[in-house]
Amino acid sequence: MSNQPVQTVGASSDKIKVVLAIAAAIAGVVGFYVLSDKATPVRAAALVVGLAVAVALAWTSASGRDFLNFARESVRETKKVVWPTRKEALQMTAVVFGFVLVMAVFLWGTDKILEFVLYDLILGWKR
């Protein structure tokens, strides 16, 4: 009999924090649009405050800390990537464009052949 991993359900306080964080983010966005008659800095402040409160609430929950750790690991892994040189990038782009061009011509030719076979040979419609 194999041992199946068991997922534990987070505490209800963590769920409440996440829900409040989502509500704060939505409130910030709604506040930005509700305050459309106010100056732009006031609207931007409403949005930033709503999002900052959302981030602060999410950060205090277990799932928020897990997400933060995931983001840190993602940045660390991105730094390990070996990016192509300019020459390699241009060569790969040329190969993609060439393939797209060949496929476009192939599909156009196939369409014209099928059009000829269907309309001219089978149906006998001359245009």
Topology, pairings included?
Layout: H1 12-34, H2 40-59, H3 62-80, H4 86-122
Q: What is the SS-derived class?
A: mainly alpha
Query: Can you summarize the main beta sheet?
Result: none
| Domains (count) | 2
**Which stretches are low in confidence, meaning pLDDT under 50 for 5 or more residues running?**
none
List the secondary-structure elements in sequence, H or E.
HHHH
Give descriptors for this structure:
elongated, 4 helices, 127 residues, 2 domains, mainly alpha, 78% helix, single chain
Question: Can you put this structure into words, describing what you see?
Answer:
With 127 residues, the protein is mainly α. It has 2 domains: 10-81; 83-127. The protein is built from 4 helices and no strands. The protein has helices at residues 12-34, 40-59, 62-80, 86-122. Helix 2 packs across helix 3 (62-80). The chain starts with 11 loop residues before the first helix and ends in a 5-residue tail after the last helix. The mean pLDDT is 88.
